[in-house]
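Thread: quick sanity check before group meeting

JM: Hey all, I'm pulling together slides for Thursday and realized we never actually wrote out the predicted structure for the chain we discussed last week. Dropping the sequence here so it's in one place. If anyone has concerns about the input, flag it before I start.
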Amino acid sequence: MNVAPYENIPLVKGLPLIGNLLTYLRDPLAEVQSLALHGNVVRSRTFFEHVTLLGPDANQFVLHDREGNFSSRGGWAYFIDAVFPGAIMAMDDPQHKHHRRIMQSAFKRSAMERYVQDMGPVIAGVLDRWPEDNGRPMRVFPQIKALTLNIAARVFMGMTLGPEADRMNQAFVDTVAASMALLRKPLPPLTMWRGVRARRYLVRVMQSKLTEKRAKEGPDLFSQLCHAHGEDGERFSDDEVVNHMIFLMMAAHDTTTSALTTMFYCLARHPEWQDRLRQDAQALPETQLRYQDLAGCERTEWVMKEALRMYPPLTAIPREAARDCEFGGFRIPKGTQVGISPIHTHHMPSLWTTPEDFDPERFSPARAEHRQHAYAYLPFGGGAHLCIGQHFADMEVKSVMHQVLRRFRFKVPEGYRMPYQLVPIAKPRDGLPISLQRL
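JM (edit): ok, ran it. Output follows.
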């Protein structure tokens, strides 16, 4: 087959200088669906030119990548180096393989069992303080964000957050916002400056705990990373532990907050599904979920997967071509910025029945629409960089929803539609007002 030169890839220019940036920030799904009208290999511009590869075959080509065509570091560095240096998702092999192998010990089954046990009382304590509906709906997103941060602090750091909770939460908000800052220099009082300042604060917090965590191995992730070692006894340096902790804390509470908020919205709009999951939760013996109860949360898992399908926390995954390669009949030169789009694949009618509809049973064993292609469903990425914390996220979501469903019934006003902000992470623009009723 003849391979066309790079210049022949269809180009969607957009506006002068900023290209398609504004339309992407406003509605990433609509933007990428408009690109798809030009084919599954499309050039576009958001300040700099990049190539978007579309569809499950493209996802597999980029993420499976046994040939070494793509650099994860080259794709992510522009966005996260200033605020999340040393993040594992921005590493290439052999460094990535080395760090992941050491880190994996912090996610072994014995550790995961302790994490589930530790998060239960944190969830219960926070839900005790949730207000019942008094005519003023509760904004769920900030409440869930505070909850997941408290879970992350307890499970990852072995501490209970006090007055510093709000500051730490804001620090993570600022660092994530800085990843998408239009002006990349840390000039006060702009977004990048706030992100870099927040990063310094988080480093100080983590460094203040290092001596204690190094001295004695404990059950929390921070301690586990301090004492984790590879097959040859290699361990993380202090800087590496701090870098991993900051990134994992962000990823754990930001992306899980996104998934849980979407689940609240979907279950509030579809009370029949809320009732089904409540029946499942009430059928389990304990008020707080245990590790051995996870298998009894099958339908909760379907709902979580459907929420992540409809609104994946990351709408796009960037890479840089590490060498010349070709896809879809086009040459992609070394150094090209390349991206794939989970949100586009998650809404392809060729893969999903009425993809715009909330339909958790598409993930049931009887239908298993997500198994039509190995890379049809990728809220946690895929390949060697598959999210190392995906099973932790699964346990946390199930643990939270188990207790929520046993305590509350919740709803949104008739006709309400949640206004989504999908970049940099999916969340509601209005905080998602929900009316709670204690059972």
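AS: nice. The chain has one domain: 79-315+345-438. The mean pLDDT is 93.
JM: adding both to the slides.
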